[in-house]
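REQUEST
  id: r-88c1
  op: predict_structure
  target: AT1G63270-like protein
  payload:
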Amino acid sequence: MSLRKPPLPRLLLDNVSCIRNAQQILRHVNASIHDGGALVLTGTNGSGKSTFLRMLAGFSKPSAGRILWNGHNVTKSGVFSQYKLQLNWLSLKDAINDRFTVLDNVVWFETLEGKEGKSLPALQLMGLGRLAKEKSRMLSMGQRKRLQLARLLAIDRPIWLLDEPSVALDDDGVRLLEYIIAEHRKRGGIVIVATHLPIQIEDAMVLRLPPRFPRKMTYIDMLDRGELM
Ligand SMILES: Nc1ncnc2c1ncn2[C@@H]1O[C@H](COP(=O)(O)OP(=O)(O)OP(=O)(O)O)[C@@H](O)[C@H]1O
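RESPONSE
  id: r-88c1
  status: 200
  body:
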């Protein structure tokens, strides 16, 4: 019989709640994520998926409970300064400078990270190689999302926090997203995704956040019942 303790989860959410603007958004959330793990957040509009990711990114603090990274509470400043270096954040705001070239919009972040050489291969993988020298204002919405994904690869941090990463992507783009997530996890990376759209992520834990307000009759329900006819 082995007396070795099971390894600590890399990330542990222990009974976490979150209040925003005096409103309770998240209640008693528990999750345990090991290296290579994936967590998919689903739920209705306004259920708190982005709030959950923002809290993990340190933009807001839990009102109760703890977020532990390697067993340490990330809200402690000494821990947070190390923890935030683990995070790669992809949000709906793309932080793309339209006056920069496509390549420079990735290189800029890679350089801040003290790294070099990965930006162009990342853009090529995401299907933007031929646009690397173009100004970013030329990009379509889906291409902007691909640029954001190329940044994840160039920056190469272990914990990915992805808010609606497949929005605006075509089918090939979604397949690429699924591929880079799978590859990241094979290297021990962690992926936490908030999404409304189906994304194939093998063995992912799924956390469905409950709606924040009791559901009222919607126009869709009325249409289904033929009440608007
Ligand atoms: N900046 C803010 N200040 C205060 N409350 C906010 C703020 N942004 C969002 N909220 C509140 O938090 C709730 C959860 O919002 P959040 O964006 O986390 O939901 P979501 O599940 O990501 O929604 P969606 O599916 O529409 O993206 C919302 O109902 C809203 O009332």
